[in-house]
Design goal:
Radius of gyration: 20 Å
Structural class: alpha/beta
Helix content: 25-40%
Largest sheet: 8 strands, parallel
Number of domains: 2
Shape: globular
CATH superfamily of the largest domain: Enolase-like C-terminal domain
CATH architecture of the largest domain: Alpha-Beta Barrel
Length: 368
């Protein structure tokens, strides 16, 4: 039976600060901007998050997201929060451009509401086992070799270490994600990675070029990275040009993952023969429901799966942690780099991001 109580959607803009700027192949990413979405009905409030992002070929601005949420608020007012199919249909059939980030916030808030309604965390509602969650990677942006080495030390032993962030059980981060694709060329990339490898100790290393290489450079780097013991390379080439991806995939001795090339489940199906895995992100796909659709499509195509993030807070990363038992790799570290994240949720144990046992997505306001 559908919930009869009307649904009220409200939004609030939050701008937490970032500890360290993140530089990728397309430049230094902007500071976090969070649109905190709350959906209230029947005395229960579900929370979601939307944030501006860009894949290089697809961009959603704060203004576009706010406009989409404003239109969505009017569209869903007459529905109950259990009527998710009707709500989604009303939003998509309404006027104006649909925003995947806005849809992500709405979908997350509705699922959070559902979990709170039945008093279960989503991972329990879906019958998942947090013991199967892989360790989360932590990110090192493009920088000079000395700065990259310092960042490694900070993640592994310094103020950003898992034990410092989550005392009494955080353990140690075990996977480093290194951003390459420097505008200064692959010589600079090699120098930076060498510095990271030297400092990494026993930590695993994966590489993300954020579409920063040509086919020629990517082909050379694949061989070189493999010789360095790197087993996974994310988005080596531009988001389009699947022919080049197929050529690279045919010769690459390490796993090739697509991020910017795959926004949704349809993209996964189209790119399946050119990649080994896909990166799923809340904002680009449109929420947890869409993330599960991407995940299932990837599995049906024989692909590995990584969960990723943009400048997301604890809210979105805790929501994604609900489905982390289903994936092979986790890269949900953006909230670690915020000095004043307003939320508390999933915690780190032994280098893994674990959802707690609170109902819904398990997020509360941080008490300072």
């Amino acid at each position: 039976m559908a919930e009869s109580t009307a649904t009220k959607l409200t939004c609030k803009i939050l701008t937490p600060r970032r500890r360290t700027p993140l530089r990728i192949s397309r430049g230094i990413s902007a500071g976090p901007c969070i649109v905190w979405v709350r959906i209230a009905s029947g005395g229960i409030e579900g929370w979601g998050e939307a944030g501006p992002f860009s894949t290089g070929t697809h961009t959603e601005t704060r203004e576009e997201i706010e406009d989409a949420l404003d239109r969505a608020s009017a569209a869903i007012r007459s529905y109950g929060p259990l009527e998710r199919q009707r709500i989604t249909g009303a939003i998509r059939s309404g006027p104006g451009k649909t925003s995947s980030a806005a849809m992500a916030a709405i979908d997350t808030a509705l699922l959070d509401w559902l979990g709170k309604k039945v008093n279960l965390p989503l991972w329990r509602l879906w019958g998942l086992d947090p013991a199967g969650i892989p360790p989360t990677s932590v990110t090192i942006g493009i920088s000079e070799p000395e700065a990259a080495a310092e960042r490694v030390r900070d993640w592994l032993q310094g103020e950003m270490s898992a034990e410092k962030l989550f005392p009494g059980g955080g353990g140690a981060f075990r996977v480093l994600k290194v951003k390459l694709g420097s505008p200064e060329g692959i010589r600079a990339d090699k120098a930076m990675l060498d510095a990271v490898v030297e400092e990494a100790g026993g930590a695993d290393i994966i590489v993300d070029a954020n579409a920063g290489w040509s086919l020629e450079d990517a082909s050379e780097m694949c061989i070189w990275l493999h010789e360095k013991g790197i087993k996974l390379l994310e988005q080596p080439l531009a988001a389009s040009g699947i022919g080049d991806w197929r050529r690279l995939h045919a010769i690459a001795p390490l796993k090739i993952f697509a991020d910017e090339s795959c926004l949704n489940a349809e993209d996964v199906f189209c790119w399946a023969d050119a990649i080994d895995g896909v990166v799923i992100k809340m904002m680009k796909c449109g929420g947890l429901s869409a993330a599960l659709s991407m995940l299932n499509t990837a599995r049906s195509c024989g692909l590995s799966v990584m969960l990723g993030c943009y400048s997301d807070s604890t809210l979105s990363n805790s929501a994604m942690a609900q489905i982390a038992p289903l994936v092979d790799y986790v890269d949900l570290d953006s909230h670690f780099n915020m000095t004043d994240d307003p939320f508390r949720g999933a915690y780190v144990r032994d280098g893994r991001l674990i959802p707690d046992d609170l109902p819904g997505i398990g997020v509360t306001l941080h008490e300072n």
